[in-house]
Amino acid sequence: MRRAEPQWGTVISVDVRDPIGADPLDDLFSWFRRVDDLFSTWRPETEISRIGRGDMEPCAAQQEVRDVLAACADLKRETNGAFDIGYGRKLETLQPGQAAIDPSGYVKGWAVGEAAGRLAAAGFENFSIGAGGDVVVRGGPDPADAHSLWRVGVRHPWEPKQVSMVLGLRDFSCATSGRYERGEHVVDPRDGSAVTGLVSATVIGPDLGIADAYATALLVLGEDGLPWLVSHPGYDAVVITSDQRVVLTPGLERVRLS
Asked: What does the pLDDT read at residue 85?
């Protein structure tokens, strides 16, 4: 069963390869809508927008919001500030879509990972879920072949309709952060300087929310951040530099198909 719907400013696609008796996807897409209702920075009534304005205390928020804020606080410490959802508080004015608190660099991956957990809990073993540059896969595309691999494309930073490489994955997550979406508006939250060294960073690992945040942090840290990334067991990366070099960690090289 395949289904795709626009959400979060992108398209969320779900591809389930197991035999399906009842449609499990209505509940899944209801979850995606709930995430938008809680975390959209474009809507003033969401809890994350209200917290950013000071209209709501974090302790009064829904459990999902409190969990995300706690995870993002941990990630800020872990990345020494390279991942910081509170950068907007340093700005005198906020542009549309900007927020004093913006956990988008974690929430998309976290929400897709949560959706994967729901499918797995319902007994499904072979599926993929993708939202923009974030993908989680379980099992393989051919349930009859225990060695089949999902082919996950990494977007080409200069050719939007092309991929820069294809990865072969099972039971893994993949997240990409790139300057091609916001251009020179990507900044280092530690000092507000423009990020220039990397054009894109792709991280693979077991947890999509963490991979998403690590990709954002790696874009800020630059090529020198790769040793930091691989110090985290289970996570690997490929980065594309502004001078068009492609740098892969050993674990990423092992899953590269083309």
From this structure: 97
The two three-digit tokens of residue 173, written as one number: 């997550």
Listed residue (156, 229, 160, 228) closest to 199, CA to CA = 156
Tallying the residues shown for the chain, one arrives at 258
3-state secondary structure of 165: strand
Q: What is the pLDDT of residue 83?
A: 97
CA distance 71 to 85: 11
Structural domains of the chain in order of their starting residue, each with its CATH number: 2-255 (3.10.520.10)
What region, left, alpha or beta, does residue 157 occupy, with left being phi > 0 and alpha being psi -120 to 50 degrees?
A: alpha
What pTM was estimated for this model as a whole?
0.95
Mark the ranges of the chain whose per-residue pLDDT is less than 50.
Answer: none
Q: Which two tokens stand for residue 49?
A: 């927008």
What is the CB-side half-sphere exposure of residue 89 using CA atoms within 13 A? 10
Rg of the chain in Å (alpha carbons): 18
| Beta-strand relationship, 150-155 and 198-205 | unpaired
Residues facing residue 165 across a β-bridge: 154
Instruction: Specify the pLDDT at position 218.
Output: 97
Query: Parallel, antiparallel, or unpaired for β 150-155 and 134-138?
Result: unpaired
Structure confidence at residue 191 (pLDDT) = 94
Q: What pLDDT does 22 receive? A: 63
Q: How far is CA 175 from CA 28, 130, 156, 170, in A?
A: 20, 10, 14, 15
